[in-house]
Design brief:
Blueprint (H helix, E strand, L loop, with lengths): L1 H24 L20 E6 L2 E8 L2 E4 L5 E2 L2 H13 L2 E6 L21 E6 L5 E12 L14 E8 L2 E8 L26 E5 L7 E4 L8 E2 L10 H12 L3 E6 L2 H6 L6 E6 L3 E7 L8 E9 L8 H12 L4 E5 L12 H14 L1
Antiparallel strand pairs: 1-2, 1-6, 2-3, 3-4, 5-9, 6-7, 7-8, 8-9, 10-11, 10-14, 11-12, 13-17, 14-15, 15-16, 16-17
Length: 359
């Protein structure tokens, strides 16, 4: 009986010791501590991102960052550089021990599990060796000072995070890490075509009646409509807006051209927009509008740069960069709606405004 009692007491002691060891492993980090002490940002060659419906790799190779799951389309070097600096310098603002049931409240559920899942970042070196990992959750809204305009310093001043090795210690950290998107498109380089000082634009639709052409002699001249129909008046403001938009286009995502993908996006029977500048001709093919309101587009660029032009070297560099866009389908934003105007749409508004002014 004595031996049995000793065994029971000894067993209880082991259980208590195990529980105590678990409690020692869960600790609150000190405010001001670095979240990832010793993080070697210069050794990072792979950023593996997992999140809601996402799993992709941003990879550094041959002095270039690319997104592997986007057929190695170039990634945004400046964004990645700044992001790695922020991760290196990230500090603890607050630390709280929480239970598994509290993770969803901070958007720190495991990646891919429900609507409150975290974004997991795994940092690896060029040999695939893990360097650090971080789970990023809900952003922390910045307290507003009544004497300051709303959002003067941004809406957020941090976010909640977890270290996978310490999953019960929720950290409020010193930056919102906005660049850590689970959307692969957000990591892509936004270097795109830029049609500067446009002199001519045409809109060629499968419906011939919707097509139009506009031109001007120089930047200070008004746009004119080629071959206007009887009574048709060009909305000069609409024409100017179209030209301005084509100087600053953007896109959300990319895909490599294939015949099947071209057909599925309606790019086998596209609307064609042509924009011509002094030395460049841009051909933009536009497919069917997506449910998001975005448009799939392709871009081809031709150039005629005289050797005598004092800017010939810069122009050739621009041409080479923009011609490299040819193999891709771009998911262009809703801005395309303001370019995709029929012949009637670019003239009716002007006529209506004229009638209103006369009244």
């Amino acid at each position: 009986m004595v031996l049995l009692a000793l065994a029971i007491v000894g067993g209880a002691g082991l259980v208590l010791l195990h529980r105590n060891q678990q409690s020692w492993m869960v600790h609150e980090a000190e405010v001001g501590d670095k979240v990832l002490p010793g993080f070697q940002m210069n050794n990072v060659a792979v950023i593996h991102v997992q999140g809601a419906g996402a799993d992709f790799n941003v990879v550094h190779s041959n002095d270039l960052w690319t997104v592997r799951e986007r057929d190695n389309y170039p990634a945004d070097f400046a964004l990645i550089r700044d992001f790695l600096f922020k991760v290196r310098d990230l500090k603890v603002v607050q630390s709280d021990v929480i239970g598994p049931n509290e993770l969803a409240r901070l958007d720190l559920d495991p990646p891919g599990e429900g609507t409150n899942c975290a974004t997991l970042l795994d940092f690896k070196d060029q040999n695939g060796k893990p360097l650090a990992s971080l789970l990023i959750g809900k952003k922390h809204r910045r307290p507003q000072n009544g004497s300051e305009p709303l959002g003067l310093h941004g809406l957020f001043d941090g976010c909640y995070a977890l270290l996978p090795g310490d999953p019960q210690n929720a950290l409020l950290v010193s930056d919102d890490l906005a660049a850590a998107s689970p959307n692969a498109g957000a990591w892509l380089s936004q270097d795109f075509f830029k049609a500067e000082n446009i002199k001519y634009i045409s809109f060629t639709s499968p419906k011939a009646a919707d097509s139009w052409e506009i031109s001007r002699t120089d930047d200070s001249s008004p746009w004119t409509l080629s071959n206007p129909k009887p009574g048709q008046v060009l909305n000069v403001q609409a024409a100017s807006i179209i030209a301005e938009i084509l100087e600053f286009p953007a896109f959300d995502d990319v895909a490599l051209k294939t015949p099947a993908l071209m057909a599925s996006h309606g790019l086998d029977k596209p609307i064609v927009i042509t924009a011509m500048t002094d030395h460049f001709a841009y051909t933009i093919k536009v497919g069917q509008m997506e449910t998001s309101g975005n448009y799939p587009i392709t871009v081809n660029v031709d150039g005629n740069i005289p050797d005598t032009d004092p800017n010939a070297s810069d122009l050739r560099a621009k041409l080479a960069k923009e011609q490299a866009l040819a193999p891709w389908i771009f998911d262009a934003g809703t801005w395309m709606d303001r370019v995709m105007r029929s012949s009637t749409a670019i003239s009716e508004q002007a006529a209506s405004e004229t009638q209103t002014a006369e009244k």
